[in-house]
Amino acid sequence: MLRNGFYWRNREMRQHVRVIDGEVAPTIVLKNATYLNTYTKQWLKAVIWIYEDRIVYVGNQMPANLHNAEIVDCKGKYIVPGYVEPHAHPFQLYNPEQLALHAAKTGTTTLINDNLLWLFMLDKKKAFSILEEFSKHPVSMYWWARFDPQTELQGEKELDLFQTEDVLAWIKHPAVLQGGELTSWPDLLAGDDILLYWIQETKNQRKPVEGHFPGASERTLTKMKLLGVNADHESISGEEVMRRLRLGYHVGLRHSSIRPDLPKLIEEILAAGLTTFENVSFTTDGATPSFYEAGLINQCIEIAIEKGIPVEEAYLMGSYYAAKHLRMEEQLGSIAPGRFAHINILPEKHIPKPESVLAKGKWIVKGGEQQKIKPHIQWQAYQIKPLDLDWELSNKELQFSVPIGLEMANDVIMTPYPIEVDITVEELPAETTDAFLLLLDRNGKWRVNTTLRGFTNQLGAIASSYSVSGDFIFIGKRKSDILLAGKRLKELGGGIVIVHQGKVLLEIPLALGGMMFAGEMDELIGKEKELKQILQSFGYPFSDPVYTIFFLSSTHLPYIRITPLGLMDVKKKELLFPATMC
């Protein structure tokens, strides 16, 4: 077993050397392998020896000791490193373990994950314990240390989510590879020295800091570089990619459900003359479930190859360049001695979806057949279970009177608008797209009431315990349907419920803390597709309703948000209407 779950112990490394000396047999031998050598960018012939979870030899020799070794003939196949997702949000309805298992089926064998959910759901001791459990997974699961919650919280100081002692403990943890993502960068520019201290301590640990700078000017990017930020994944044009590269950033090219930008970004950086890609990687940035039906980073590599990135570079952008940026190149991202045995076996060089996948030396897919990998995270041991709610949603919480609502500019951008319809009624008229919007404290102690324009022109109600703040969101035209959706949400112990004219149309139970689905990804993908279909039939005009719901409270996006403190003008950091105590 790895030391602390993350590094090999001395006796294990001695055992690996004994394999070379013939004293111990490898567990798997890949012969007649044509593999991509990361360091020469050549396709070379080799025999690859694997002992348990580690590559121990890459060369021309067969092992002298083959006792019980599995020998796989890879003639006619092409072998590349397992792909790396450097920026995962592993809780977009799915849970981290099921996302990892699903990702590995198409070759993404390493994920670097947002730790935000653990900050909300677990104390530090339990959080670090679950990180160690994840380290035993065949897929390499690493994390980043957040510096901010992405929303305004009621009594944030009392919650102790971002105390310096705890932030530093996360930064120093061996499973944590970077700090960020830095959504609170305006505070840093405004003089927040505690935030700057956390960044500097991250750099002292020789770990990079990930930014979040959509639309940032050269001046802002330069300032953030001076303050210690290493990388950013928010480019929405080739010009923005090039600007970041010229300033020394590592750039993540994003291809996600809410911003499927990769084809355009690649076309534009190639047109700009970019010929070197060592500081570029890919990310799917926490896409919603159905976007992952065809996989994760394999999709990005496929697009890159189709758009003219050299094949070798495309694979390295999906593996080694991300690992090197995260200073994990001695463990990940290449077929070489000493690396984790994350290996994808491809039918052709230009087809990045593998027909066989090894993750830490275990077969995830073998010859096109998925292997059964049993989940091992015991969620109940961490008290991550259905919500036990001791309150009932009532007409008392459905009192609407504020004059300003949120209008959808797209899936996630909200602008303020003056409410012109009568919102004291039981049902809002179908000829408008105004709907009731309620954010309700998970413990039933406070509420924020307003309207949302542009989400639906008909739907009775949708209720969700899935939100960036972990509180409950209700959207709909009809108060009676909102009440029924709230009742079902309580009975489920959390989830998403759609109701229309007194009938429940869809339920997605989120039995893991009201935030995550407990079942497999394939089932969840089907449910999310159904959710989209229903909402679009009721007038939802955009592509990603799950992110609309999730980000309603998110203060890293403009212009107006419904937060636990109340309605907020994000740019001015001004509270327009405070929350009401229940």
UniProtKB/TrEMBL annotation:
The protein's Enzyme Commission number: 3.5.4.2
Domain Adenine deaminase C-terminal: 435-573
Top-level taxon of the source organism: Bacteria
Residue span(s) of domain Amidohydrolase-related: 78-346
SUPFAM superfamilies reported for this sequence: Composite domain of metallo-dependent hydrolases, Metallo-dependent hydrolases
Record GO terms (molecular function): adenine deaminase activity
Keyword annotations from UniProtKB, A to Z: Hydrolase
Gene3D superfamilies: Metal-dependent hydrolases, Urease, subunit C, domain 1
Signal peptide start-end: none
Reaction equation(s) it catalyzes: adenine + H2O + H(+) = hypoxanthine + NH4(+)
Name of a matching Pfam family: Adenine_deam_C
Family: Belongs to the metallo-dependent hydrolases superfamily. Adenine deaminase family.
Name of the protein in its database record: adenine deaminase
Organism per entry: Virgibacillus pantothenticus
